[in-house]
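Hi F.,

I've been meaning to write this up properly since the lab meeting, where we talked about keeping a consistent format for the predictions we share between groups. The idea is simple: the sequence comes first, exactly as it goes in, then the structure tokens exactly as they come out, then a line or two of notes. No screenshots and no reformatting. I'm using this chain as the first example so we have something concrete to point to.
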Amino acid sequence: MNVIADNNFKTIMDYMHNYMSPLGEISVASDGESLIGLWFNSQKYFGSTISEPFRYEMVDVFKDTFRWLDLYFSGKQPNFLPKIFLRCSEYRIEVFNELLRIPFGKTVTYSDISHALVERKIMLKASPRAVANAIGHNPISVIIPCHRVIGKNGNMTGYAGGIERKIQLLNHESAYFRKSRLMTE
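Output, unedited:
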């Protein structure tokens, strides 16, 4: 599942709306057609992809986004993505597309992501540090699952939404992942 992206974006109006999750309020942003941002309200880089002017208004992509979030927070693995448009560099787009390949309830390391980019011949060389920097600027938290990336030794490292939220998201997925596995065995 690749996302649409462009680092030379121009828009007439951006839109925002709020969603109340079990982990706190989330703000979502759209260019009117696609999701361009999703942040916990207190997280680092909040609003980094929004252009002025913007207004608070419900647009169609928010309905799909809220449906995705409702499914996710109820413990179901959504089988779709809302339409996403990334306003960032090509390198970050490749990193974010790699994040979308991480299965629900699983974790990988920054090194795993950098190795995958090289193995798939997307990059000739990708350092875990550069991958971590890109992941830290993920403008679409939760849906593009940067919380599933951990340190090489299993440490819970940086998450723009806060380490406590990262742990809660991983515990949430792990609980439902174990429950669904038990039901199928």
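Notes:
Residues 179-185 have pLDDT under 50 and may be disordered.
The longest strand covers residues 14-21.

If this format works for you, I'll send the rest the same way.

G.
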